[in-house]
Every structure is written in structure tokens, then in C-alpha cells.
Amino acid sequence: MLRRPFATLLLLLFLICVCLPVLVVRGCTFYDTPRTGGLTPHAGPAVTLRRVSNGTTEEISLEEYVKGVVAAEMPALFHLEALKAQAILARTYVVRRMRVFGGAGDPEHPAADISDDPTRGQAWLDQDSLKERWGILHFAGYWAKICRAVDETAGIVATYGGDLIEVAYHSTCGGRTEDSGAVWQASLPYLGPVECSWDRHSPHQARLVSLTWQELERKLGQQAGTLSVAAAGGKSAVVTVLSRTAGDRANQVRIGDLTTTGVDVRRALELPSARFWVSESSKGATLTVKGYGHGVGMCQYGADGMATQGSKYQNIIAHYFPGVSLRPIFRE
């Protein structure tokens, strides 16, 4: 009479120990519904990172790599939600390039997915470098904050139409972000200009840059005396912004007989941004420059301002990247 209950008990144990785990563990699927966190700090594939400072290539877990990028690219004093938004963008940027996900890797270093050269992508710093930057007294608190931002968004990336987005961010937009086509000749639907009134606490909000005509001639490679003679004539402005971009930055600029782009003027004159206005005197030109950086994508100081006013990382990314969705890399 005890056989039937015993058999039933065995059947229940079989279902709990064998069948239930099979139903729970279904493997991994690339992209699915959003979630907050879920991956451990060391989960996921390794990033092959080229260290330009010493010429070495090393493997580091994806989430640890993201921590080094967030710490290098955004002030640790920023609001936690801004740091979370930065973490998602940093992760998206590298996953798009990782060969294990079908990316092309680093074209200059075939053995690496990416380098830590900020002029070609994202900056990255190890903990020893961060101790030097922050100081030993601040390191523990700042690093814990960075880790929290990354861990609480672990595995989340930004997509558009099911594909990873091309990530862009900068320090300060000065009131309005830029269309990607105005900077890189490739307009993307989620990288268009948006208004931004949250970056006013940035130290890069506005700056005056004064240059003599001789300095302008030297920096622009023009013949000595060309601009000063034109200024002495007084018939028309020597420096004229002929047109502006959708992001209110200088597009076409005429300087003497030279017509060039605002991006080229910014590069040649080493300006904080291409969002500038010009006034002249007999001695030279003064440029009022707003913002810092190329202006495309997320304004970092704007993200901090949004977060301070109560916005979550989802709202921050939605504002600066219209139409973009947040997805986990894997669904367990």
C-alpha cells in the first residue's frame, strides 16, 4: 500500500531535479526585452584590449572593461543615473566592435577588438591609473560608484531597428546637439539635433577666444598680411559664417578669400567646438564659442543635469537618441 505514494514521490523528485532546470535554462538569445542588471560583474565574453601606452594586448571581461571606460570618460562626481547612461553607451560601443559578436575589431591592431586610444574611440583606465587621477583618498568611493552604475545596467545595450547603434557622446553641447551628418557626413536617424537645457553647470558652457589677424593667418596657413590688409580695408567682414548646421554650429565659413567648414575651422584654431560666433576689430577676431566637443549624441553634462532633475538613465538615452531601444545582450 506504500508503493503508490513512494512512486509519486519519486516522480515529483524527478520533475523538480531534472525537468524544471531544463525549462529554466534555455540557452542564450542575442537581444530581447529590456532588463535592469542581471549579469554578474565578470559575466560575458572577454574584450581584447590594445593598450597604446605600453603596446600590449590583454583580455578583460566585458563589464570590467565598461567600468574602466565610464571612469575615464565621465566625472565620477556625476549623478548615478548619468553614469548608468554612460555605461550603456560604452558597452554598446565595444560590443558593436567585438569580433565574437561579428564586429570588425580594431583596424589598426588586428589582434584586438578595441584600443584605449581616446582619439580613435573610447578612453579606458585601469585602477592604478584611476588612483593617480582621483587620489587614494577618493578612489574607493568613486570606484564603488562606477561599479554600481555598471553592475546595475550589466548586459544592457542600445539598439535601433534591432541593430546596435553607432554610439557618440561629448562633454557639453551648449544648448543643442548636432546632426551626425554635419560632422561625419553620415546622417543617422537617432543622431539628429535635440534641444538641451541641462548642461548650464558645465565649465565649458561658453568661452571667448581672441586671435590677432597674424595668429589667424598662421593657424590657417594663409599668406602673411592677407587678413590684416583685408581688415584695414573695412569694406566687409573678414570672417563670416555663411551658413549653420541643424545643430546651430558653423557650417560654411569664409575667412578672407578662403571658404571652408566650421569643423575645419574648429580643428585649425583648436576651438572647444564649432558652435561659434565672430566679432572683429582692427587687430583681430574674437570668437564666442559654446560647448565642448563635436556635439553629436549624448551631452554628458546635459545627462548629469537631467539626472539631477530626476530623469532615469532610460529617459536620458531616449532624449539624446530618439527611437533607440534598450536590450540585454543575452536572455538567459
Keyword list:
single chain; 332 residues; alpha+beta; 2 domains; three-stranded mixed sheet; three-stranded antiparallel sheet; 11 helices; 16 strands
Characterise the protein shown here.
This protein folds into two domains: 46-198 and 295-331, no CATH class; 206-290, no CATH class. Strand 9 (239-244) and strand 10 form a beta hairpin. Strands 3-2-4 form a three-stranded mixed beta sheet. It has a three-stranded antiparallel beta sheet with strand order 6-5-15. It has 332 residues and is of the alpha+beta class. The model is unreliable at 13-42 (pLDDT under 50). It is built from eleven helices and 16 strands.
Summarize this structure briefly.
With 332 residues, the chain is of the alpha+beta class. The protein has 11 helices and 16 strands.
Number of domains: 2
User: So what's the overall shape?
Assistant: elongated
Strand content: 15-25%
Tally of separate helices: 11
Straight-line N-to-C gap: 43 Å
Structural class determined from secondary elements? alpha+beta
**pLDDT under 50 segments (min length 5)?**
13-42
- Run of helices and strands: HEEEHHEHHEEEHEHHEEEHEEEHHEE
Please summarize the sheet with the most strands. 3 strands, mixed
Radius of gyration: 26 Å
Read across the widest sheet, the strand sequence of neighbours is 3-2-4
Oligomerization? single chain
Give the % helix. Answer: 25-40%
Count of extended strands: 16
Rounded mean pLDDT score: 87
